[in-house]
Amino acid sequence: MRNVIQALQKCLFLSLFIIVVKTSQAQNTPVQLKIKDFAVWGGSVSPSSYNSSQGVFIGNIVAIEGNVGSSQLVNAKNLFSITGNIYSGNIVSLGNLGKVTGNIFAAKTAPNSPVNVIEGDYKVNFTGNLTANGKIVLKSLGGNNATSVTGQVAVPAPSSTNYSGPAPSGGITNTLSLPLLPTMPTSNAFDNQAGTTNITGTQTISPGKFKKLALTGSKVLTFNGPGNYIFSEVDNDLTSNKLVFDFKNTTTGSINIFIIGNAKWGRLTVSTVNGNFTDRIYTEIHGTGTGNDGNAFDIVGASVMPANNYVWLGNVWAPNGGISFKSINPFNTPHVLGALWSAKKVELDQEYKIGL
User: Fold this and answer.
1) I want to staple 72 with a disulfide (CB 3.0 to 4.6 A). Which of 16, 22, 55, 164 is the partner?
2) Please, is 86 exposed, middle or buried when counting C-beta atoms within 10 Å of its C-beta (0-12, 13-18, 19+)?
3) Listed residue (183, 147, 151) closest to 164, CA to CA
């Protein structure tokens, strides 16, 4: 009987040991991120060499609902709001009067990247944990201008050298756990599929191959149902036009906009009819942004935004150039419903609200 009990005790001990080991291994295994985890992503250069031209650049009074990330730099100016996590292969730099509702991870992989791995100017509220492979410097004037950290701070030892800021509610640890950054999406092959017809005026187009899209102002272009719409380039200059995505009351299929060169959309408003399926709109652009400050996808917000209209709808992937959204009217609030992914950079001018 004693042998049976001893055998059972050994089995129980071994089972508990295996559980503890597996749990420890799971906790120590870095999380592998995916590009679809992000509302905004900019950059693809290896984080082992710092490149300040790549990253996510957020202007004043910008609100983002979803994760933000870069292999290089995530930079926000003033009066920003990010409801999601921030991930960087190198550094995160934040301005004044902001709020981050989520965790921040900054790996500082490149030896030549700036000393401060996470930095925040005055009166920034951090609701989440801060993890940096180096120094965190948060400014705070106290009182109404105080910066706050509701979470834990993780920095290399010694903490007194690598953390400067308000006392975090969750304390300070020297144990770091940094996730693995995502790989870039596979691009579609359509660069040799340009059509011969230019689009310049108000009309409805069905899926097909077109040459240049160059709306001349006050024009309405309707995409007639799911399918692939291939253009050699888009150049609306700075004219004001409208895009309508007609889903034809379908329940499957996506409206895919494929652009071989650059896309200068000008001042744009977009909307849907016969189905409101933002997740079924996808844009991929293969331009390099040459002659346009490196931006392959460029939009200027409309001076007036009608009800139920947006600056853009759906996910955008730019493997070879940047994505830029500019606001022409600081008192207007343009909106983007969808994700913005660039292998170079994403620039969001003032007064933008991005949401998935």
Assistant:
1) 55
2) buried
3) 147
